[in-house]
Amino acid sequence: MPEQLNIAVFASGKGSNFRAILDAITRKHIRNAHVVLVISNNSDAGALVIARENNIPTAHISRKQFASDEEFNNALLSTLTVYNVNFIVLAGYMKRIDPCIIRSYRNRIVNIHPALLPEFGGEGMYGMHVHEAVIARKATHSGATVHIVDEEYDHGPIVLQRLVPIADGETPATLAAKVLEIEHELYPEAIRLFAEGKANVDGQHVTITK
Questions:
Q1: Among 4, 119, 156, 163, which one is most buried in terms of CB atoms within 10 A?
Q2: Which whole number is the average pLDDT over 121-128?
Q3: 17 pLDDT band (50/70/90 cuts)?
Q4: Is 210 strand, coil or helix?
């Protein structure tokens, strides 16, 4: 049996992907994994409310609370250590992860992006900006991507992707809703693969075993 995933969820917003992951753990779709901590840079984040409702420890850690980037990153790392975190899930976290944290959790940080990477990724491509760019390009399909987080935006090895067809008359808002629905299925599935030891990172590739 692989090592149990002690997951820290980083979130800035309402936490719908976090809720989907938590539901999958509760239903035993994901075994050998527990969310042990939720961290947010936003004290009003819905994700913190969800965590408290489920008796999961929370931490509000914002760069604004510290005199330097180093102090901020040290606070994050020390908090992760206190809760014995060995896997990080970014769920709508609106801050870039510092390289020092990526080094400490190399190949153990995942993110979900609302498009089919490497298309429509990179700095500034988040939230509705992504869907607006997809529609502007007149693409025939979009989707969601779970990927390993490295030092570049939306760059790390892809774990899973799923396509979403774009209908005639699609708007950024309707596309966003369709993609989010897929995200709620895809993200728990990706975490299940890691929890079962079936997702193995080798350089810029992730190998999935049955």
A1: 156
A2: 90
A3: very high
A4: coil
Same domain for 90 and 155, yes or no, is no
Q: How many domains does the chain have?
A: 2
Parallel, antiparallel, or unpaired: how do β-strands 5-10 and 87-90 relate?
parallel
Share of the chain above pLDDT 90, in %: 93
- The two three-digit tokens of residue 106, written as one number: 């190399």
Do 160 and 186 lie in one domain? The reply is yes
SS3 for 143? Answer: strand
Strand partners, 113: 145
Asked if 113 is an active-site residue, the reply is yes
Token pair for residue 48? Answer: 């913190």
Among 113, 131, 141, 205, the active-site one is: 113
The answer to whether residues 99 and 1 belong to one domain is yes
Q: What is the CATH number of the domain that holds 59?
A: 3.40.50.170
- Tell me how far apart the alpha carbons of residues 130 and 164 are, in angstroms, rounded to a whole number: 14
Do 138 and 167 have their domain in common? yes
Q: Which residues contact 202 (CB under 8 A, 6 or more apart)?
A: none
